[in-house]
Amino acid sequence: MKTLSIDVRRAEPQDARDVSEVHRLAWNQAYAGIIPHKPLTEMLERRDEAWWRRAARGPSTLLVLDVAGTIAGYATIGLNRARALPQDGEIYEIYLRPEFQGIGLGRRLFGETRRLLKSLGCNGLVVWCLEDSEHATRFFRRHGGLDLAEGMEDFAGVHLRKIGFIWP
Predict the structure, then answer these.
(1) pLDDT tens, 117-132?
(2) Domains annotated on the chain, with CATH
């Protein structure tokens, strides 16, 4: 019998190509039809392999979900950027390749990000997502997030509502 390894670990610069691919696939699936085509395409082009290599060395923490040697997802975490909210930690991004969604791996990656933030002394957590992203809003509600904050995100003049989910 073969054992399948699933590990959440800090990204290394050599993961950049795979993280870039996860980002491209996940964002195309999540935001096509929500974010206008041109700004979405520009974002995907800007976040190429070199961008992710720098991110792996940057001030926020980049985690990867490694499933038997395949980077199936990633998350970026750090300190809460919304000064009006009392939570210390923030998950900036959390995404999986589409073929790895719906089998509990998102829950695993989300749980590990929460544990890491707590171990770093963060009290409370916020995650922002676009209101029209039904998959994301459903995921965060199902995992105990309280829809307590809102804001706007601008994509080339198109204003989209975002929701801040809070875990005290």
Answers:
(1) 999 999 999 999 999 9
(2) 6-167 (3.40.630.30)
